[in-house]
Structures are given as C-alpha cells and as structure tokens.
C-alpha cells in the first residue's frame, strides 16, 4: 500500500528563520496536498501540486513536487508566529472517490 | 473557499450510549464526504467515504456496525458512534470534496472537527 513519510516530526524554529518540511511517497502520486492544522481544529488548505517539477507559492510559503512525483517539500521563508501549527501532506492515491492518504504531520513551533 | 460545518464541536457521553456527529456543506452540494479520525499527535486516519444516496465505503479495519454513516442529502452526512466506549474517544473530522473541481485537482474542505470523550 502507498504510504507517506513526513519529516521532521516536529520543528522548533527561531522567528525569522527559514524552514523546510518534506513529504515522501513510496509510489508516484496523482496529486499532493499541503494543509495546515491548528491543534483541535480543522484543516486549512495551503496548496495542491499535480505536475512533476511543479512549484507553487503563497505569501512566504513555497511547495515543490519533484519530477518523479514522489517527493514534495514545503518551504517557509522568514517564519512568523502565525506559521506555527501542524503541517500535513496528503496524497491522492488514485481512488475512484478521490480519497487522500496522509503523512503523520509536522508540528512547527516558532520561537519569538 | 467553501465551508463545511460540524456539530457538535465537542461531546462527552457515557460508555454504552450512541453519539451522532453531523457534517454539513454550507454553500455547495457534496456528493462525496469523508470521515476521518485523528489521535493525539497522529495523522488523519480515513475511516470511510460517504456517498450521497448510497452506502458508505469503509476502510479496512473500521467496523461498519460501530460507526454508522448516513449521507441522506447533498449537504449532510452523519456519523453515529454506536455503543461508545472510552477507546472511541478521539477527534473526528469530516471533509467534502470541491464539486466544481476538474479531474483530480479538487481540494477537500474540512470541517472544524468534533472532539468525542467517552467516560
């Protein structure tokens, strides 16, 4: 079965510093989603990548999908306290109902 | 973006009772909704896919008779935890796929989640 490995599990970063979160699949992905979650709340959509080599940016967050469509990275530039939370990658596994499987999440803490 | 609501946001129930959680798409019609369970410091576990007007598709290891799913309309899916036990305590989240999405590009819109505590 397809699995998603997400790393690191947790991350403590000084405010203003850059950081990267990775998501690796054992199989080629149909699509890769990045979401953010505050503890005890729902998920907020960040970005969706579908094409090999694709890169998208929104404000200070950039996500990339490699050419083989098996690995994605989420990069935050000049981190701010508002970036704190849990980042989850989800993969479209090609099912008829568009179900997603999920990485374990990365807990990001921003130190002031 | 589209809005998905869940009710209740939290619930405490006694062991042996049943609890119903509602998931509503507020400004769009969702033919497909998903129910997830999330354990502390763990990722989302897909429990089942709920299709309007038909039986839900359950993931392996999820008890159909324990977690009853009903998708009676295009804006409402319900998850009923029957004969709840303390091990059912968890955070339950629903999502609905963007119906206007072309091909496989649509994002899922998530509800705010329901925290269930069984005593």
Jot down its keywords.
heterodimer; A: 112 residues; mainly beta; six-stranded mixed β-sheet; five-stranded antiparallel β-sheet; globular; B: 119 residues; seven-stranded mixed β-sheet; 11 strands; 0% helix
Walk me through the structure:
The complex is a heterodimer of chains A (112) and B (119). By secondary structure, chain A is mostly beta strands. Chain A has strands spanning 4-7, 10-14, 19-25, 31-37, 43-49, 55-58, 61-65, 71-76, 85-92, 100-102, 106-111. In chain A, strand 6 (55-58) and strand 7 (61-65) form a beta hairpin. The relative contact order of chain A is 0.33. Chain B has 119 residues and is mostly beta strands. In chain B, 0% of the residues lie in helices and 51% in strands. In chain B, a hairpin with a 5-residue loop joins strand 4 (32-38) and strand 5.
